[in-house]
UniProtKB/TrEMBL annotation:
PROSITE patterns on file: PROKAR_LIPOPROTEIN
Taxonomic source organism: Flavobacterium noncentrifugens
Positions in coiled-coil regions: none
Name this polypeptide is given: DUF1573 domain-containing protein
A Pfam short name: DUF1573
Length: 162
C-alpha cells in the first residue's frame, strides 16, 4: 500500500513540475505580432445597387441525394442554375461544409437570362452512415448567400481486396 501511495505522489509531482516547465517556456517565448489572433471581419452584406436591380440564382434543385455509396467513393453532382434577375450574377466564393465537399463555380459574370453550373464533388473516405453536407455560395444576390445540400448513405466496404 505504501508503494502505491509513493508512486501516486511521485507521478503527481512529475506532472506538476512538467506543467510549470512548459509555462516557463511559454513565458520566455517572444510573441510574433503577425501571428496574433484577431477578430474575424464582419461579413459584408450586399450593398443595394443604385438601380435597385439584383441578380437571382434560380436552381433546378438545391438538394441532391447520392443514395447508397461505398465508403471511399468519390461522387460528383452538377447543380444547374439560371440568373432570373435583372443584373449580372457574380459568384465571389463557394465553400463546402467540410474538406470532403468541394464546389467548382463559374468565375465569370452570368448575365440575366443565362445559365450556369456548380459542380460539387464529395469524397466519402473516412465517412460512415448517413451524411449531409452543404455548400455556401457568396454572390451579389439580394440575400448575399445561397445554400446547396448533398446527402449520401455510406456503406462500409467489407472484405479486403487482394
Amino acid at each position: 500500500m505504501k508503494k502505491i501511495i509513493f508512486l501516486f505522489a511521485a507521478g503527481t509531482f512529475v506532472l506538476a513540475s512538467s506543467c510549470k516547465k512548459q509555462e516557463a517556456k511559454m513565458e520566455n517565448t517572444p510573441i510574433n505580432p503577425a501571428a496574433q489572433i484577431t477578430e474575424a471581419p464582419m461579413p459584408q452584406t450586399a450593398t443595394p445597387p443604385a438601380d435597385g436591380k439584383y441578380p437571382v440564382m434560380e436552381f433546378e434543385t438545391k438538394e441532391h441525394d447520392f443514395g447508397k455509396i461505398n465508403a471511399g467513393s468519390k461522387v460528383v453532382y452538377t447543380f444547374n442554375f439560371k440568373n432570373t434577375g435583372e443584373a449580372d450574377l457574380i459568384i465571389s466564393n463557394a465553400v463546402g461544409s467540410c474538406g470532403c465537399t468541394v464546389p467548382e463555380y463559374p468565375k465569370e459574370a452570368i448575365k440575366p437570362g443565362e445559365s450556369g453550373k456548380m459542380k460539387v464533388s464529395f469524397n466519402s473516405a473516412g465517412k460512415n452512415g448517413q451524411q449531409q453536407k452543404t455548400v455556401t455560395i457568396t454572390a451579389n444576390t439580394a440575400a448575399g448567400k445561397e445554400m446547396l445540400t448533398i446527402k449520401a448513405s455510406i456503406t462500409p466496404v467489407t472484405g479486403i481486396a487482394q
